[in-house]
Amino acid sequence: MKLNEYLNEYKAKINDAIKSIYDRKLKNINNTFLRDYYSELKDYFLAGGKKIRPLLCIGTYNAFNEKKDERIVFPSVGTEFLHNASLIHDDIIDKDNFRRGKPAFHFRFRNYHEKYNLKKMIATDFGNSIGIIGGDSAFFLGLEAYFHNDFNRELNLNAIKYYEEAFIEIANGVLIETDMVNQTNLALSDYIEMVSLKTGALIEKSILIGANYARATEDCINDLSIYGINLGIVFQIIDDILGTFGDETVTGKPTDGDIRENKLTALKLTALDNLDNSNKIRLTELLENPNMTKNDVQEVKDLFSKADAVDSCKKLADKYYQKAKSSLDNLRPSITKSEAEFFESLLNFVVERKF
Amino acid sequence: MKLNEYLNEYKAKINDAIKSIYDRKLKNINNTFLRDYYSELKDYFLAGGKKIRPLLCIGTYNAFNEKKDERIVFPSVGTEFLHNASLIHDDIIDKDNFRRGKPAFHFRFRNYHEKYNLKKMIATDFGNSIGIIGGDSAFFLGLEAYFHNDFNRELNLNAIKYYEEAFIEIANGVLIETDMVNQTNLALSDYIEMVSLKTGALIEKSILIGANYARATEDCINDLSIYGINLGIVFQIIDDILGTFGDETVTGKPTDGDIRENKLTALKLTALDNLDNSNKIRLTELLENPNMTKNDVQEVKDLFSKADAVDSCKKLADKYYQKAKSSLDNLRPSITKSEAEFFESLLNFVVERKF
Questions:
Q1: B136 contacts chain A (CB < 8 A)
Q2: Residue B11 near residue B45, CB atoms below 8 Å
Q3: Is B89's CB within 8 Å of A167's CB?
Q4: What is the pTM (predicted TM-score) of this model?
Q5: ipTM, 2 decimals?
Q6: What's the pLDDT tens digit per position in A94-124?
């Protein structure tokens, strides 16, 4: 089954599981503001996103079961909560008011403040406050995916351990990335370590949670882990390209963010590698300026183009694509054909995607 | 054993358990910034706080075991992580730069930014960003208290459920409190519901986690729950008094915060109840002003005094003190003498405390 077929098969079920976690909360709440808060969170979760993490969990579970069973859908949504919680906090940190073409979670409550003309606190602070608590709630509600399901307690406790590890690794990745703005002479290995944590960890853990419930062997878990981390690395390299050279109307994100923040992207890294010394110095100088003009941003993009950075990044992505593919090939004898096809089509989607 | 003796017996052990959770993380980290991050979190946890939540968990466990065993110390620190994580986020939300007379967690990283003269992001944003992630990390690290201990998986999964419930209830309490600023005609029952969640829930859950590991009976759990929530209510009422009429040099907190934020405190509630109509209107008018002067704050305090609000609050606290005490009396036949003394002395401490 290809990714699209998988999505068609499971998207509504995944959304139902997410809904049921929120409805369980809403059922017992009378306070109007609390109702609005959980309804807004629920809507944020259901409004968008490709649900790749739950799909990976479900796909992995199915890969070890000739007969599909629906029990895996409920716990599969845990990492979607973790993912959305991180996005909610990231958008506050990065001051991004939109996500997936819709208002970011904190921005919804900034608007709420204005709509109801609330007292005391100003609207921006109100939005950020409810946003901080909103992310926290989502982190905790994700745990409920492992409480209310039909698997035994041992498997659920294992899943919670993966859930916790995933967050710790994401946080480490984000912190290393934040610090990288202040570091020079960073190597490819630093970048790969950072994105393995920031992006790879949650993809890997979504897979391993599926493997846990399927009681996969140690050998399989090892290959699944390599597949997942490398899928994450490929995802991030392509994300870096799209973040600067993507079509804003398709990605829904402005193409100057990474440059203005001087993020260590694959583009920056390969450009610094490919450019001669004087262009390298110029690029660094431009990126370190805290008040970049539009022209500065364009000059950075031009330097990226001069360095053939997009092509170099695609080659880099291919290196990690091959690693993921080779792990997948190791797995083939142990997993179902239909799910091997799913894993392969997902890998191809991640390389070819335009959004 | 009285509270003080309990604290003497366990404080170092509790701190060791907290340390070991951080040291487990630090052991595998080479990145300088990450090391600084976890070291700062560890220091924040060890720098202060009365460790009442771990003590309650330990005390409850011991109450059902004639022979003390040290296994309970490690899982007892989970709710201390939850408590500190909430404080880290609260201080960002309330823009409080100090906590327990020391820099708040986000403020430490604002200073860190200035010390190392970091690039791009401004110091305030850097501090808030690391603070948001810091609170998140602490929420997750608390789960490790339930992974690495000598109890079985079933008991640990139960503890994690209490951990999650505690957060959801705290968040609901904080959200209801935030919304109350915009509500009128609030009754005592609204206040009690809010503080039961905001303050009572984590105290109650710390106790129930201890009871879970001790496999206490349903009847005992019921009485422990009532004791815990009412202890929390008493704690909050006294906190409200100290927040406005306490000695700043002892509490470490300015005495105008609650008034300026127009929080629904026990003082505000009882004052509105006791004052005549014209004074009531004046009090509301003063509290709703978003730009209060020092004189306005003083006038509010004078109206509180005129209404005998402190005395009324103490009477109110006594009502919930009696409820906690009566649950404790129900428990006496089932629990050890030494721990009954601990529960009683803690209840007395909470009423009599000046900080």
A1: yes
A2: no
A3: no
A4: 0.96
A5: 0.96
A6: 999 988 888 999 999 999 999 988 887 899 9
